[in-house]
Amino acid sequence: MTPDTNPVTDPGADPVSGTGAGATGASFQFRFDGETVRAEAGQTIGAALIAAGRRSWRRTRVGGAPRGVFCGIGICFDCLVVVNGRPNNRACLVEAAPADLVQTQEGAGHDDLAC
User: What's the CA gap between 19 and 38, in Å, rounded?
Assistant: First the structure.
């Protein structure tokens, strides 16, 4: 949602997409596991992946169960992704940016640490 669009006070605004009177509608692309994903200005990586039809993008360490957005507010860790080489980003909280390189997170995301 754009800062100048309030679905409560703006009757032309769509509360889900944030579009309507005052919305910019600016879109851009980022890469996810080598594929191009379209995102809207202000949209999180998780929201853009869901809009692109991706429901899961991580697997659990034990059992390999698919995970994506679960809580959507940053409390759980089901939606972790690697963003521009940095692991352990919650896709539901990180705003997508043009030319971001987002990858599926494998395991605990600590492969780059010398532990």
Answer: 16
Write down the pTM of the prediction: 0.71
Q: What is the pLDDT along the chain (115 residues), one digit of tens a residue?
A: 445 544 444 444 454 444 444 345 699 999 999 999 999 999 999 999 999 999 998 888 788 888 888 998 999 889 999 999 999 999 999 999 999 999 998 866 655 544 4
Helices (H), 1-115: 45-51
Query: How far, in Å, are 40, 70, 110 from residue 98 at the CA level?
Result: 10, 25, 26
Quickly count helices (H) and strands (E) in the chain.
1, 7
Q: Could you give the CA distance from residue 66 to residue 83 in angstroms, rounded to a whole number?
A: 19
Beta strand pairing call for 101-104 and 80-83: antiparallel
User: Which residues on adjacent β-strands are paired with residue 28?
Assistant: 39
